[in-house]
Specification:
The protein has about 100 residues and is α+β, with helices and mostly antiparallel strands. About 35% of the residues lie in helices and about 15% in strands.
């Protein structure tokens, strides 16, 4: 999973959701979409320190308001993001203080 974000009409963030939904529309299960977008993507980059949630690995976490295994579109329902040891709400990420 990866996008060409930054090109015209390919926006950062939104393009990731579109791509994962397209993967599901092509016949992948929600679990297959999640694995392809995390573990498989890390392996494709030759990274063993990311991609799965295990002791000793680097990890950023996304907390959702709905089950992504019920529908890939639920990946859009971001509630919190844990990144670099800090927790951010969706609102803080969308509208950072100036």
């Amino acid at each position: 999973m990866g996008t060409d974000a930054g090109n015209p009409l390919t926006l950062h963030g939104a393009s990731v959701f579109h791509e994962m939904e397209a993967m599901a529309e092509a016949g992948m299960t929600p679990m297959e979409v999640l694995v392809a977008s995390t573990r498989t993507a890390a392996r494709a980059m030759g990274r063993t320190d990311i991609g799965t949630l295990e002791p000793g690995k680097l990890a950023d976490l996304v907390v959702l308001d709905a089950d992504p295994l019920a529908s890939v579109s639920n990946l859009r329902r971001v509630r919190l993001v844990a990144r670099g040891g800090e927790i951010w709400t969706r609102e803080e990420l969308e509208y950072p203080s100036r």
